[in-house]
Amino acid sequence: MIGIGLGVTQQLIGINIMMYYGTTILQESGFASSAALIANVANGFVSVLAVIIGISIMHKVDRRKLILTGITCTTLCMFLITVAQFAFPTAAFLPYLVIILTVLFIGFFQGCIGPITWLLLSEIFPQKVRGLGMGISTFFLWIANCLVALVFPILLAAVGLAFTFLIFTIFNILSYIFTYKYAPETRGKTLEEIELDFKFDDKFKENLVKDELE
Questions:
Q1: SS in 3 state form for the chain?
Q2: Are the C-beta atoms of 145 and 117 separated by less than 8 Å?
Q3: Residue 33 or 14, more confident
Q4: Distance between CA atoms of 22 and 20, rounded to whole angstroms?
Q5: How far apart are CA 152 and CA 157, in angstroms?
Q6: Which intervals hold domain Major facilitator superfamily (MFS) profile (predicted)?
Q7: Predicted TM-score (pTM) of this structure
Q8: Nearest to 101 by CA among 67, 78, 71
Q9: Residue 22 and residue 37: Cα distance in Å, rounded?
Q10: Which residue, 131, 96, 103, is CA-closest to 18?
Q11: What is the pLDDT of residue 213?
Q12: What average pLDDT does range 63-81 have in this prediction?
């Protein structure tokens, strides 16, 4: 269940609305079509650069700390875009502010959240079910990806960009709560040690329930 949750929350953060609909978001914020297409190139460039940085630091920084820092920053970016859309809908600086926040969002996601999520999915399952566990988690991740991609333009048409980003800000907060509560720290541990951590945690919970019943 933790693997499925990590996969689903990764998508609910909203990375692929930025990647799939980046040009649309910029146009809705005030860029002309041609300018939005050119500006959206920054998203792809930053995405590649951030992944390289993320891969280079993932073994040097605690994984929980890295992914939680990433979600905190993506939440802040989403929130600031929401506030800007509500407060300054016709301001000349709005499209430039949105592109800056969009690029920052993608950078924090691709550098802190994306690589770590896939790494955790490869580590948290016991050896005998690792392939199955990763397969199921990946399946739900792509289902969530598909739903987000389908729902975003519907939301955009129904409630506008500001309310749509408000909804994804809430999704980011929920993703943080889930990750904080359930994502394990795996840095510096062997796969066997990670499996033992889960077993001891389950046994502790069982003993706690027994004590309460007695």
A1: CHHHHHHHHHHHCCHHHHHHHHHHHHHHHCCCHHHHHHHCHHHHHHHHHHHHHHHHHCCCCCHHHHHHHHHHHHHHHHHHHHHHHHHCCCCCCHHHHHHHHHHHHHHHHHHHHHHHHHHHHHHCCCHHHHHHHHHHHHHHHHHHHHHHHHHHHHHHHHHHHHHHHHHHHHHHHHHHHHHHHHCCCCCCCCHHHHHHHHHHHHHHHHHHHHHHHC
A2: no
A3: 14
A4: 6
A5: 9
A6: 1-187
A7: 0.85
A8: 78
A9: 9
A10: 103
A11: 47
A12: 95
Model confidence at 81, in pLDDT bands (50, 70, 90)?
very high
- pLDDT for 120: 85
CB-CB contact of 27 with 36 (8 Å): yes
For helices 94-108 and 15-29, what crossing angle results, to 10°?
A: 170
Under a CB-based contact definition with an 8 Å cutoff, are residues 79 and 54 in contact? no
Question: Which amino acid type is present at position 93?
Answer: F
Q: Using alpha carbons only, how large is the chain's radius of gyration in Å?
A: 19
Which pLDDT does position 191 carry in this prediction? Answer: 67
Share of the chain above pLDDT 70, in %: 89
CA-wise closest residue to 156 among 85, 206, 69: 85
Alpha-carbon span 146 to 100, nearest angstrom: 26
Type of residue at 141: L
